[in-house]
Amino acid sequence: MAKDRATSDAIKDVEELCGYVTTREAAKIVGLEWPTMSQVVYSRRVKAVRIGGIILVEKASAEKYKLERQQMMAQREQERAEKASKESERERDKALREKLKALSPEQLEALLSQVEVKA
Fold it and tell me: Rounded to 10 degrees, what is the CA torsion of 46, 52, 54, 55?
């Protein structure tokens, strides 16, 4: 137990002096679960070092990754919204074509007479 406390104190000293945090703390900064953050570390998307059996993540790197991740997620959300909008427009156009096909020639002529034609 005393060894765990000494290790914990040493980690806090490294965090304060060198700008490194544990993977758990990095996960909190980024907004991920610890196992996911560990995958980020192992895939080298953030700067990290191993000291003994402890992996420490550069705090600035974790914060940078958080911003990049937020930007990527915002871009994906925008792309999803654009795709949904295009799909909705296609559905609307399809429904309109079906309604126009169902019109009799007389109904179509009456409808066209109401539309102002611009040349």
Answer: 0
